[in-house]
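Protocol step 4 of 5: obtain the predicted structure for the target chain.
Materials: sequence only (see below). No template structures provided, no constraints applied. The aim of this step is simply to have a reference model before the mutagenesis design in step 5. Sequence pasted as it appears in the construct record:
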Amino acid sequence: MAMVASGERQASGSLGDFLKSRRAALSPTKAGVEDWGKRRRVPGLRREEVAQLAGVSVAYYIRLEQGLPHNASDEVLLSLARALQLTSTETEHLLDLAKPSPIRPSADARPEHAHPHALAMLDAIGDKPAVLLGRRSDALAWTPTGHALLAPHVPFDTSDPRTRPSLPRLLFLDPSVRRSYADWESEARLFVAYLRLISGKYPDDSRLAELVGELCMKDADFAAMWASGRVGQCTAGLKHFEHPLVGALTVEYQLWLQADSPDHRIEVYSPANSEAQTALERLSALVREKSESKPGQDRNGARSIGEEQA
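Step 4 output (C-alpha cells):
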C-alpha cells in the first residue's frame, strides 16, 4: 500500500516541483536577468528573479513553489509561464497543476476500451503500421503490421485490460524493445514527457501512479527523466528502428486524436525513405505469411509473428 501511495506522489507531481524544475532549467542569460557577477550555486534562476520577471511578490511565489496556489488567477499563472519561457504544452500543464478541473470524470471509473470508430479507422488503414494508444500509452489495438513494427514478440491480442501491452513498460523494461530503437534515449524522453503531461490532467489516476512508481523503482533512466520535470506533447516526427525482423529503418509518424475518446490517439507510421519502404514491405509480407499459415483467426485471435523466435 505504501508503494502505491509513493507512486501517486511520483505520478501527479506537484505545482511546486514543476516550477522548481523549470526555474532550474532557465539560465539567467536566456531570461535576460542581470547577473552582476554574483556567484550562483545552481545554473538556473533564483526565486526572487522569477518573481520579479512575473510581477509577483517573492513571498507569493515561494507559496506557489510550496504547492499552495490559493486560487491563483490565470493572469498570474500566465505571467509565470512567460517569465519561465514555458512552451504552450508546459503552460497547459502548469494550469492543470494549479487549477485542476472540478468536473473531470474519475480516471478509474472503468477500464479503457477501443472505441468502435477507432477500430474502424484501423481496419481502413489495413496493412499499414498503426497503433491505437490509450491514456497511459497502453496498446488498445493495432494493425498487424503496427504490432509487427513495435513489438512482434508480444501477443497480438489487446482485448484484456489486465494483460494488454504497455508501451512505456516495454520501452523501459523489455530489453528487446529497448534495443529496437536506434535513438532510444530520445524516444524515452518523449514518452516520459507525455506521461507527465497526462499526470497533470488526471492526478487521481491510480493506475498511472502505479505505472510511474513502478518505472521509477525499476529503471534508473526513467527515474532521472521523470525527475527532470519535462513536459511534452508530440504529434509528429521520426522514429529510428533497428528492427529484429527487417533491420534498420526510419519511419515518420503522426498522431490522430479521437473525437469520441479524446484521451485516445492513433499513431500511424509511414516510410521516411526508400530503404524504409522496402523494409516495411518485407515486414508486411511476414505478417501476411503468418496470417496465411493460421487461417480463420480474427484481430483478437492472431498470434505474434515473433512467437517462434521468442
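Step 4 remarks: The radius of gyration is 22 Å. The longest helix spans residues 274-293.
Proceed to step 5.
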